[in-house]
Request: fold
Amino acid sequence: MDWNFIIFSVVKIAVAIGVLHAIAAYAVLAERKISAWIQDRVGPNRVAPPFMKYIPVLGPVLTRWGIFQPLADGLKFMLKEDFTPAGVHKAYFWIAPAVAIIPSMIVIAVIPFGSVMGHQQMVIANLNVGILYTFGIVSLGVYGIVLAGYAANSKYPFLGGIRSSAQMISYEISMGMSVIPVFLIAGALNLSSVIAWQAQHGWLVIYAPLSFIIFLIAGFAETNRLPFDLPEAETELVGGYHTEYSSMKFALFFLAEYSNMIAATGMMTTLFFGGWTLPFWGLDQPAHSIGIAIVQILIFLAKMCALMTVFIWVRWMFPRFRYDQLMDLGWRRFVPLAVVNILVTAIVLWAIS
Amino acid sequence: MANTFPDILFYVFAVLTLGCGALVIANPFSRNPVTSAMFLVLTIISMAGLFVLLHAFFLAAVQILVYAGAVIVLFLFVIMLLDLKAETMRRIKIYGFIAGIVSVGAILAIFMKSLGATPLNSDSAPAVEGNTEPLGKLLFTHYVVPFEVVSVLLLVAMVGVILLSKKNLD
Reply:
């Protein structure tokens, strides 16, 4: 236990969480802008600090892109009245938002977001059981939603919580089984080893496309995004599990959803798209200089943002599933498909070797 | 410093495990079933912490994944669906009392026997380091029969549930 390790770990954790929240805030903006384009609207285009209009060209352009909207949103969340309705289970009502956001933040610990910088590996915890840690923590995320639904002591949040618990357990199974072929091919559970394998042989999405499709769709379900946003279906349940929440407590649920999305896309980037590597210009080797290390982190972030765009795009293109269709898809389509995928991959690998 | 830090963590996790475990069954502040379930989650997470200190990373991850992430979510699901109110004080039945004493005694006997069989203060390296590879090899070679028997047990339970829940099988 040396001080070097502690200091660098703290710095990495602070930077990772800071970047996570910045991306989450701007993902909300991206969500609003992309939804606006899809629906032929303009989206947020006028929030700006007062001095912006004096800056020629750049000021109006940034304002029109809505760059300052997340700042205004954040300020609004913090300044609004934090209202606790009568009749809620007080303790759970307070704990639930924290329980929702903590797993979504610590899940990024095992994702390698870069190669090396100096002597530091660009991953917070290089675990041998990396993927199992991820699934374990992700499976804890359901408690935030279930407790929120229970604590509100009213019907719509309750239904949202019940739906969510059943949905997340169901899709965790297909999600967990979908990635087994990836590890069969790569031959290691350690995420850095998976990236090293991809640097040598090419992206795993080519070798295991079915795994990627199942993982992507299960990812929509795990993050409660539309086609599968049954826990917070506005038209049926008002706001679902967070109906009774206001102000910063609501913002925590909101942040948790986007952090989960970021973690899911980070996981996909690592497992299927080669993580921080690019197959040319020698970018698939661990970096020798600070500059290349930063470029590799940017590559990782760029891949992640591309996948986030897919998440957002899907949300505004497809209607919501009915609950029985959701369960049918999870249990009767994806689970058998994932099992067949594992068997076929194992047989092919055995035949090759 | 090198040795004391894990030791401190051991006591923290041990106290958490025992304390939360006690609060699951006898909580003086609340008789709400949801509270019990949540303390069970905390118990399991602190037990996972103990596994980590023993370098059994795989066991720790699976403990959280299976028990905290799935089994107790199902508990909560059932508690919420049945809408259980706070439990009222019940008179303890004599059969329940005897069954409890017998099962606790049996577990205690097994515990004492295994504790007596292991020499204390021996710095025994774990047979399987927390990696998944040696664990998988052990499970599928040396312990393959018990492993398969357990999976058959799960299958039997599943078939039983389907038989019970579907009144008229066609």
About this structure: Residues 4-130 of chain B form a domain with the Four Helix Bundle (Hemerythrin (Met), subunit A) fold (CATH 1.20.120.1200). DSSP finds six helices and no strands in chain B.
